[in-house]
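Tokens as discussed.
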């Protein structure tokens, strides 16, 4: 199944792309998605402990089961100012 991943703020700058499509097996989780992305973009792994993952309008954890053609947002922690 295909999932579209959008990157925000410094994560987008780090990999030089706003979004990417990722092919995964049916039943894949956000954790599976992250491992596949880290294999292609190893520099992102350094941010693994602090990233936030959104599916639709809510934040999800790494056990969240992905849906076909879902859009996933990966972003750094939100900071106020």
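Sequence:
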């Amino acid at each position: 199944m295909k999932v579209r991943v959008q990157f925000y703020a410094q994560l987008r700058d780090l990999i030089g792309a706003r979004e990417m499509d990722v092919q995964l097996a049916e039943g894949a989780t956000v954790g599976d998605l992250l491992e596949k992305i880290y294999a292609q973009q190893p520099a992102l792994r350094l941010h693994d402990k602090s990233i936030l993952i959104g599916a639709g309008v809510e934040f999800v954890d790494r056990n969240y089961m992905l849906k076909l053609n879902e859009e996933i947002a990966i972003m750094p922690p939100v900071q106020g100012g």
